[in-house]
């Protein structure tokens, strides 16, 4: 796993960030302030920062354009759109989940109030469609449809996630389906929408979407592992945060369904009223591990990463088999897709 | 003013409602349940009703198609889209405004919780773009851009409305600008997007947008009058509701700025802490009237209606002046646009 930030993330920021900044400049001044704060462009009072997200979804979109043999700047509207959709969902999720912190700062609703965060989310979602609709490509209509289906899947994933909190019989399959909606859908969209906008062969676009879908699942599994065993410096959250909030994350749900003694004790802790003590949190983490939740999740994350990377091989194997077949991936694009896949599932920076 | 429901509203419901129902059928079951409840298709537990909104925005969109000489069904995706955007904004506004009632029933957040209402709003907004992106018209990209700009204006209007609540120096001009965003923008979009999708001459589309913009302002002014002097049976809200919630509606803001003795007493009541008594509410309504807030708003509503109708004359006056000029409005379309304009500003059904 790579410990350094891949080059594609830096290049991408230079290309896509101006488009996102230009988009939020179209908003009314207050909504622009809230949006730009959330995006990390300035402090709550408008003082500029050197922040901003990593933009990994945008990076995948620009790589998709290059996979289609196009210049990355052709996919900038799509790259900006996926980042805007990602940030719309963060804004609204933080309101719904009562998460008061995001990227080591107060989340938007905590800084400005709930209504402002809802409105900023709405605005970013609208801008995503606006930028794509402005793309002067006949393929934009397909990209728009993909983006809107993705929004539906995001909503379904968050709906399921919230409903799981009130149930104690959530199955691993249900949980994985929720992850596909909540996380993998936008990864799949990000990885394929650039190729789609640049008129790539259908097989290339499809394989890139599957690459993104598997990678998204792997990313979420790693995120769930970090939510229990990650250090606060890396996650930006308190230690054992996901256990404190009794989140039905994948390692926990696996452990609860493992049918071993550790599972029963874990269930007892998860059902107990009130805050868990530090000792109980440490015990819960050990129980998840003893019931196999950690090793299963680590193994599955690796398997999903392998499945993602196998999609790149499939593109190359299909190349040249008939007239409609895709071109092989340019060697540098292939290398960057592999690099970025390891980066987003490593999360060790 | 007409007291009966114009025919175009019934025809439109038969044409557009299946498209909206089909759209929400694409959502995950729970989000579909919340959305259909809000739309009036069923009770909170899913029991079907014979409800549903009037769909006046959709009616304007189909009339726009007919104004362009096209069959109304060509504009169904646009008509469904404007209704979906309208309902997304109602869902989110009710959360932000803490309005627990909508159309004589608990609002969606009151029935299901805040998160479900936020998610249903997000879903409907996404579906609006999805339906338009699926429209098999080369003009769909223009319609999409218009819709997304409208979302921005809606957000700006709601942002301003919420911020006005915390200020006691809001000017009439600021208030009217807020109304243009919060209400007139979607009216303008609804009235023009059908013509746009059906490739009407630019002048026709532009005039229909202006017709909608003026009509939207007139509609909101009438709504503000009903918020003070309407009966609960018509408005579905408690009597003097807007005064109880100290809303900065147009009649109130006009009155506060009128520089007369009644304005000072009204300001005193609006700034007083705690709930206003029944007597104080009656006094406040009388003060708004004494300061000229009622008559100015009534007069301005009439003026905006006249400006709206004058746009229809302009289309006919432009007709035939050169090759790019619009065709005159078909007589039946013209009659229905006039009828509907009186209906939405009468609000006496």
Automatic annotation (TrEMBL), chains A, B:
Transmembrane segments: none annotated. GO terms for biological process: isoprenoid biosynthetic process. PROSITE patterns: POLYPRENYL_SYNTHASE_1 (PS00723), POLYPRENYL_SYNTHASE_2 (PS00444). The keyword Transferase applies. GO terms for molecular function: metal ion binding; prenyltransferase activity. It comes from the Bacteria. Gene3D superfamilies: Farnesyl Diphosphate Synthase. Keywords: Magnesium, Metal-binding, Transferase. PANTHER family: (2E,6E)-FARNESYL DIPHOSPHATE SYNTHASE, GERANYLGERANYL PYROPHOSPHATE SYNTHASE. Belongs to the FPP/GGPP synthase family. This is (2E,6E)-farnesyl diphosphate synthase.
